[in-house]
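Each record in this resource describes a single protein on a pair of labelled lines. An example record follows, reproduced without changes.
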Amino acid sequence: MPDVSLLELAEDSALYIPLRPGFAQPTITEGYGFFPGPIVATVQRIRLGDDEVEPAVDEIRARARAADLRRIIWWVGDAATPEDLGERLVNLGFAPMTTLTSMALTTAPGGTPIAHVREVATLDEWLLANEIDQVVAEISGDEALEMQAFNRRVWPEVQYRRVPRMYLAYLDDEPVGFARTAFTDAGVVLLGSGTLPHARRRGVYTSLVHARWRDAVEASTPALVIQAGDMSEPILRGLGFNDLGSIRLLGGE
């Protein structure tokens, strides 16, 4: 993996991060990588020929049905082929969701960490971090209950392998933020983070970035990569992250 570029790591991170507990083995073909999660399948590293798109979509839909997955999300990065892949996926029933910016940081982040951040070490902390994630993502109902049961089930392996590494951020001893992270030989992938609404704009996000940079340096992989959304992109740019490219997400069944 040392030969993997930061752009590759950011654009097609599922191909390079360790397999997460509770996730099924991916299927890697010459044309795509199919990564089944507990509920959603991700398709990354898409290198299809002009006449291969429709057959690949049929294959991937069949794989998702066989695994009883609810949704498929295509990550169409700048390196994906063919060039009109996004438009063809729309014509095949997949709806545009959002566009992310691939970003990387290779020097110490700017800003000042305010919140106290630590890696989760107990089942209670692991469940709490995931509950904050669900609140931030507005996940509720049956899906939230399924995720809670899943998170409880996989904790022993998460604790043993530290995959993913989950962090909690505290303000005045109150847990208000979380961050999910994967460490690789080529760099550290920031897989998502969030702050409870009442604690936003108080430096929690910046503190979570600083904590993960610290651990990246300690692991001798001083590079962070992320797929940033509209809310986090300006903050990350202010912390010193550089743009690498864009990724269009399209979802459907």
Notes: Residues 6-99 form one domain. The longest helix spans residues 141-161.
